[in-house]
Amino acid sequence: MRDFILVASSQDLAGVTMSDYLRSKQGFAPDGLHDRKEGQSFSSPAHSSAKLYVANESLLTLETLDTTYPDARAFVFLSKHRSDSGIPTLTCHCTGNFADAPFGGNPKEMAVALPSLQKAYLKAITNAQVPGYDVIIEATHHGPTSLKKPVLFVELGSSEKQWADRGAAKAMCDSLLAVLANGIKPCEKVAVAIGGTHYPTKFNKLLLESEFGLAAVASKHALDAIDEAMLAQMIEKSVEKVTHIVLDAKGLGSHKDRIMRLAENTGLAVLKV
């Protein structure tokens, strides 16, 4: 059986909080498979579909996990979320860089997405109703980008107080483990999404209230970088076949006509929200 690899970093307080919970309450113990200066591997008899890997470097630069876990089904990164607002927030997103790569990964490279995993986790953590926290997806951003297997970041934020919140960490880990244990149902429809803000409420609603899953999500801040080649990469870098392009029509600004033409030229169904 191919495992989901839960990836934390000793440099990331939220990841430390979540990995501490997995080890102390969910039975994850050192398994001797990857115990070296780069990091350590943990397994739990109660969770056969998942392994935990705690790295000693930044999550954003872990581009060699394919070598460590060549049979992984996907990598789920347990990460902090930082924002100037400081609003308690639980987020999830795929990774990739539309232009430059200031926060890990390669420029103009999308990571592989597993839309059904993001959709299932978002539904689970939303249903968990963690008191005091907003729940929202983010647009695609940062590294790692070159892993051959899908990448999903699940994040706890938005400040140090939340990064150490054991109750929120428990809800996130329990939601994730339940999703992995129950099996992930492939999405009937999969889209790449373009437009809107970095916290795309319209696309978030689409995931929660329809049959759609999402691969790459490009906010209005990335529109300058969306050309035919980038759009093709967004479509191709999905384990599940992309069937639609979803546009936040009001969130495309001056790029609206150009993005519409690019979308229509793909031959995929175009949906405006």
UniProtKB/TrEMBL annotation:
The molecular function GO annotations come to: D-aminoacyl-tRNA deacylase activity; Gly-tRNA(Ala) deacylase activity; zinc ion binding
| EC number from the UniProt entry | 3.1.1.96
Q: Which reaction does it catalyse?
A: a D-aminoacyl-tRNA + H2O = a tRNA + a D-alpha-amino acid + H(+); glycyl-tRNA(Ala) + H2O = tRNA(Ala) + glycine + H(+)
Q: Where is the signal peptide?
A: none
Q: Name one GO biological process term.
A: D-amino acid catabolic process
UniProt cross-references to SUPFAM superfamilies, sorted A to Z = AF0625-like (SSF142535)
Keywords in UniProt for this one? Answer: Hydrolase, Metal-binding, Zinc
InterPro entries annotated for this entry? Deacylase_DtdA_archaea, DtdA
For the protein in the UniProt heading, the enzyme class is: hydrolase
**A Pfam family annotated for this UniProt entry:** tRNA_deacylase
Q: Which cofactors, if any, are listed as required?
A: Zn(2+)
Query: Record's family?
Result: Belongs to the DtdA deacylase family.
Could you give the subunit structure recorded for this chain? Monomer.
Protein's job: D-aminoacyl-tRNA deacylase with broad substrate specificity. By recycling D-aminoacyl-tRNA to D-amino acids and free tRNA molecules, this enzyme counteracts the toxicity associated with the formation of D-aminoacyl-tRNA entities in vivo.
What is this protein's name?
A: D-aminoacyl-tRNA deacylase
Which organism is this protein's natural source? Candidatus Nitrososphaera evergladensis SR1
